[in-house]
Write a structure and sequence with these properties.
heterodimer, A: 584 residues, MetI-like fold, B: 457 residues, two-stranded antiparallel sheet, 2 strands, 1% strand, PstC_N (chain B), phosphate transmembrane transporter activity (chain B)
């Protein structure tokens, strides 16, 4: 019994203290540390991605939560706002409120007289929603007709973006010397006692150099691309490359001549000079003087002391932005007069979709989602719980129930777009249900989340101990009474948690809704489950496709709203679990 | 109208319940000994009244719109009878709008006539629904009332109905599968009747644009799906290259190394990631990741498509990380502790134990987790719709734009479509391929899991 197995012949002996063994151990420990670092790295990567994703959405969403409005006083007259000269609401509804706003703008800028400028003033400054605001105001209080009315008119999206600083970079520099203003026909000539204009000229030369460098980079890229193509395409590319090289050479030549005056064309950054209460757009800069056109008239041509005038540089060239220098000058003028200000954009939450980015809101999508979720909940909660109760409590172990179980597990993994195909072929084409309706969306989503709810409900039912069931049966309850009166109520918190998680999943689902036509552009807020509607995630998809920057901001803002709802729902599920879950 | 009918159902149910229960109570008052509680008499009667109404509604829903449509079209004068599907749908839409008083403008004579017929047929259909529904309810009521008696086994009858309803609820899962199979199968067969299946499965060119006019040339539409399968595979591979290692390492760290404090932070991170809707990932891929990759690529002198497969694949990979990690976490935790203890007892370090003992033991489970993740990546729609391209390029260069099966299904089916063109039907053929591919992956994965579990339980 005390035999100790002799070491097998030829076995290697490992010394634990030899240098070789120490080195081996160090290697193994290093491998251990590396392996552990990979794990930490993996989790850190996921966390970083999450932070970047949410941070990116928040940053992109910010501009959508504010809007700039112009506080203006207008006087609506009866003949303008009423189509038949009475204050009948029907007549007031079809009045020409744009005319009232046009006159109001005219009063703000009385010096604008030419047709082209007037059209620009009328079209580029205010949103078409401003007339709506005025109309609602007049409809609410017809006695305001003929009286001065102060309204907050929504600005057009381009103007709004400019004021939010998203359209172009702005650089302001205060004039260092004493400025002299001389009129020269239509133009204004400015001189300064300090080298203000020399510095401005140097900036222009710098942008020329940058432009030349960008052209050269593009040419190099195209040269590389041209190697891969042949024939006509290649010829076109080579012509384009030659043009780019020519442009770059010309720009470099201009930049090299340090003191030569420059004309500020539309493809160079704009420079606006604020002086004597007016705004001058520089057209030509020399080392000591600058020449420009007047965008907002000057009060006088007196000399101005150092610090009393500014040069504003708009880094995005006029040719590359939607708002030209004239409108920028008007906006700057209004800002100085304190008439435009930023407000919270409550419109985003209270209006439906619109083609105009500044007027678009998510109310329609929210209501559409709510109606869809209502249909989904009404359908999938009873069916899901019913199926779970049957499978868990009553089903005999046979082929059919096995088939059902396999089915449920497989349905849980079917791609969501396939449910869209089902909705399209079955509900729309076979049953003839209305397209784009929350009813059909809810039906499809109900089928989609049904497996989730069944699986969660079964788990909840299974966790109720058999003693409850047995006690009920023991005092004479029928099997169904035991289940419906005792087991099901105890399983309810778990079922509710599973349902909420399933509904959160349904709320974020997009693909099946696309196929059943909930992607239409719908302005009206849906009133019933058979009206055409869209849903929040679909609205996000639709807006993300649009080119306007403000729509992108609204997309991000809509995402934040969606995420907020999901967090609330998941939080509620966690709360329910913490509060009511019982460990038996 | 249908909502009104639902209200009617509720009202009938309540009335029948109240009547049945009062009958039951009356029996008790009469001194009789009841077999079932009065409540069950009420429930029994209510069920008998409601069931016929639901049956009538279910039969009416698919039939009524067809009837209304046929009557509307029949009312049109012969010279205005629509020739094409498009014309027919336009006419019906106008007639509906005129009938509802929502038509902007003045309808022409044909539409006015059709609108009259539409309104008439609609009223007829609604009256039919009401009459049939109420008749059914009345029949159920009469039948049930006659059976109510003190010794009537109302509870057993009601429980019998309940059981049937419960079975029907579980049957919905089977019905859904059958519905999916049939809805894609029929359209797919119709597609293959027009377009040979081998050209679809093995053709190298995908250009689904069909001729709008008969005299157009070069617009016949070819449906070779190989570029789509290649694009789907490319994006799936990129996604799995991200999700596989990251998800697996995250799972290993969470189950083998993490202290409870770390787990309390890391687990919610992965759960939040799993809860973010795919449309949000799509937005991020299209507006942030794709331009970033394009800029980086171009500064390195590469030509990168603005809808590169790389952007869609990377973001999709991140989306799948929690999926891989939670499934792998489960299988790693299922490896018995005794195996680990044995390995530690031999002097192995933790990482050696994981690499040589835990992972080989969990391998079948991990393989099935990766297969489920692949099926998820292949079926994912919104990320690729927003961030991948539309043109079917047959390429494996991740910097170029490729398209996927799901993108094409969405593109072919969104917007106005005529339901009878090869273009529309091809989307169902793609859906068919997608459904059976993912189904096969899932079944295999679940088999592997089940087989593996039996070893240790």
């Amino acid at each position: 019994m005390t035999d100790i197995a002799a070491p097998p012949q030829g076995a290697r002996r490992f010394g634990l203290s030899s240098a070789e063994a120490q080195a081996r151990l160090r290697r193994r420990h290093a491998a251990e540390a590396r392996f552990r670092a990979y794990g930490i790295g993996a989790i850190a990567l996921a966390a970083i991605f999450l932070v970047v994703l949410i941070g990116d959405v928040i940053v992109k969403a910010m501009p959508a939560f504010t809007e700039y409005r112009l506080t203006m006083t207008v006087t609506p007259t009866l003949e303008q706002v009423s189509s038949d000269g009475t204050t009948d609401p029907q007549a007031l509804r079809s009045g020409d409120y744009d005319a009232v706003l046009r006159r109001g703008l005219q009063e703000l800028f009385p010096q604008v007289t030419t047709r082209a400028l007037r059209r620009k003033l009328n079209n580029d400054l205010l949103s078409s929603g401003a007339a709506m605001t005025l109309r609602n105001r007049v409809l609410a209080d017809p006695s305001a007709i003929g009286q001065p009315v102060t309204i907050e008119a929504l600005l057009d999206d381009a103007a709004d973006l400019y004021l939010k600083g998203l359209m172009t970079g702005r650089r302001e520099s205060v004039g260092q010397g004493q400025a002299q203003v001389t009129l020269d026909g239509e133009d204004v000539v400015l001189t300064s006692s300090a080298p203000d204009f020399a510095r401005a000229l140097a900036e222009v030369k710098e942008s020329l150099r940058e432009e030349a460098a960008a052209d050269r980079r593009e040419a190099a890229r195209l040269t590389a691309a041209a190697a891969d193509v042949a024939g006509d395409q290649r010829e076109a590319l080579q012509k384009r490359i030659a043009d780019l090289e020519g442009d770059a050479a010309a720009a470099e030549a201009r930049a090299a001549a340090a003191d030569a005056p420059e004309r500020l064309t539309a493809d160079l950054p704009s420079k606006l000079v604020f002086i004597n209460g007016g705004i001058v757009k520089l057209t030509e800069i020399g080392a000591s003087e600058a020449r420009g056109t007047v965008l907002v008239p000057l009060a006088n041509t007196d000399a101005v002391t150092a610090g009393g005038w500014d040069i504003l540089t708009l880094t995005q060239p006029e040719a590359n932005r939607r708002l030209d220098d004239q409108v920028v000058a008007w906006l700057e003028d209004l800002k100085q007069r304190g008439m435009v200000a930023s407000h919270f954009a409550s419109r985003f939450f209270t209006s439906g979709d619109s083609r105009e980015p500044e007027q678009a809101g998510i109310l329609g999508a929210l209501i559409g989602s709510a109606l869809t979720m209502l249909v989904t909940l009404v359908l999938c909660l009873p069916i899901g719980v019913g199926a779970a109760v049957y499978l868990e409590e009553f089903a005999p172990k046979n082929r059919l129930t096995d088939l059902i179980e396999v089915n449920i597990n497989n349905l849980a993994a079917v791609p969501s777009i396939v449910f869209g195909l089902l909705g399209l072929a079955m509900f729309l084409n076979f049953f003839g249900l209305p397209r784009s309706a929350p009813l059909v969306g809810g039906l499809v989503l109900a089928l989609l989340v049904l497996p989730t709810i069944i699986i969660a409900s079964r788990a909840a039912l299974k966790s109720v101990p058999p003693s409850i069931r047995e006690a009920a049966l023991g005092i004479g309850a029928s099997h169904q009474q035991a289940v419906f009166h005792h087991v099901l109520p105890l399983a309810m918190p778990g079922i509710m948690t599973g349902t909420i998680i399933g509904m959160a999943h349904a709320l974020g689902e997009t693909a099946p809704l696309l196929l059943i036509g909930m992607v239409a552009f719908i302005v009206d807020v849906p009133g019933s489950i058979t009206d055409a509607a869209t849903a929040l995630p679909v609205q996000i998809y639709l807006w993300s496709d649009l080119p306007e920057p403000l729509f992108q901001a609204k997309t991000a803002a809509a995402i934040l709203v969606l995420l907020a709802f999901l967090f609330i729902m998941n939080g509620l599920a966690i709360l329910l679990r913490r509060r009511f879950e019982r460990r038996w | 109208m249908v909502s009104l009918f639902f209200l009617l159902i509720v009202a009938v149910a309540l009335a029948a319940f109240a009547f049945g229960r009062s009958r039951g109570r009356a029996f008790v008052g009469g001194g009789a000994r009841l077999h079932s509680l009065p409540v069950y008499h009420g429930l029994f009667l209510a069920t008998l009244c409601v069931l016929p109404m639901l049956v009538v509604l279910a039969a009416w829903t698919p039939v009524a719109p067809r009837y209304v449509e046929a009557r509307t079209l029949a009312a049109l004068p012969a010279e205005l009878a629509p020739q094409t599907t498009l014309e027919k749908e336009g006419r019906l839409r106008e007639a509906r709008l005129v009938a509802l008083g929502q038509f902007a403008g003045t309808p022409d004579a044909g539409t006015t006539v059709a609108a009259g017929a539409y309104a008439g047929a609609r009223t007829e259909a609604e009256v039919t629904l009401l009459v049939l529904g109420l008749a059914g309810a009345a029949a159920g009521f009469v039948f049930g009332r006659r059976r109510l008696a003190p010794d009537f086994r109302a509870r057993n009858s009601f429980e019998h109905v309940t059981k049937v309803v419960l079975i029907a609820c579980s049957g919905v899962a089977i019905l859904t599968t059958v519905g999916i199979v049939f809805s894609v199968l029929f359209e797919t067969l119709r597609f293959f009747a027009r377009y040979p299946w081998y050209d679809f499965l093995f053709g190298l060119q995908w250009s689904p644009q069909t001729a709008i006019r008969a005299d157009q040339v070069g617009q016949s539409g070819t449906f070779g799906a190989v570029p789509l399968f290649a694009g789907t595979t490319l994006i799936m591979l990129i996604a799995m290259m991200v999700a596989g290692p990251v998800g697996l390492f995250a799972a290993i760290y969470m189950s083998e190394y993490a202290t409870p404090r770390v787990r309390a932070v890391a687990k919610p991170v992965l759960e939040v990631l799993a809860g973010i809707p795919t449309v949000v990932f799509g937005f991020f891929a299209a507006l942030t990741v794709a331009p970033f990759i394009k800029n980086v690529g171009e500064s390195l002198g590469l030509s990168v498509a603005s809808e590169s497969a790389l952007a869609a694949g990377l973001v999709m990979g991140v989306m799948i990380i929690p999926f891989v990690s939670s499934l792998s976490d489960d299988v790693i935790n299922a490896v018995p502790q005794s195996l680990r203890d044995g390995s530690y007892g031999m002097g192995a370090t933790r990482s050696e134990t994981i690499k040589r003992v835990v992972l080989p033991a969990a391998l079948p489970g991990i393989v099935s987790a990766l297969m489920l993740a692949i099926s998820r990546a292949v079926g994912e729609t919104m990320i690729v719709v927003m961030a991948a391209g539309l043109a079917g390029n047959l390429t494996f260069n991740p910097l170029e734009a490729v398209t996927t099966v799901t993108v094409q299904i969405k593109t072919l089916l969104v917007g106005d479509q005529e339901f009878d063109s090869a273009k529309t039907l091809s989307a169902f053929a793609l859906g068919f391929v997608l459904f059976f591919f993912t189904l096969a992956l899932n079944i295999i994965a679940l088999r592997i899991v089940r087989k593996y579990r039996e070893q240790y339980d």
